[in-house]
TrEMBL record:
It comes from the Bacteria. The lineage of its organism: Bacteria, Bacillati, Actinomycetota, Actinomycetes, Pseudonocardiales. It comes from Amycolatopsis bullii. Residues 134-173 are annotated as: Disordered. This is Pentapeptide repeat-containing protein.
Amino acid sequence: MPFDPEGDKEELQVRKAAQRILLLHLRPGRAEQPSGDFWPDTDLDFSGATLVGLTLTHCTIRSITCYGAEFVELASFRGTGFRTKADFNKVTFQDRVDFRGTVFGGERDSFNGASFEGPADFGTKSAARLAGARAKRGFPRTWPPGWEERPVADETDWVELTRKDEPGQPAAR
């Protein structure tokens, strides 16, 4: 269903309410005080969705699929753990994205075809696999260790993300 965040304010409020409900149920709480509202084995599928101001910080998620999704405004996954799969293939991050402290726990994490159009921060300890992703020039970014930006032929506004030691290949874990 097409969605215009600027034009449909009621739909935007419904979407943000649903996102808040997810946030509340995907945080396990502290070890000494676990949350009784936590949904432990949640698989999220946001394929093709337009997500506005998504905040899933300090969550535990079994898997997430965002194939072709569009993230508008800040998208924050700070401190979140993806236990089995994190599929961000063909995603567009229109604004700032925060993956600091995010743990990619499975062998099926991918950002192939993802576009970063604003600032991005993966922190200094992330093991995210960014092969096939690209970024628009001119924004501050912190990529995971071992990743760098390289110019894209015939696209002066874009760079591609490649491994320093194996250009274009995901790192062995």
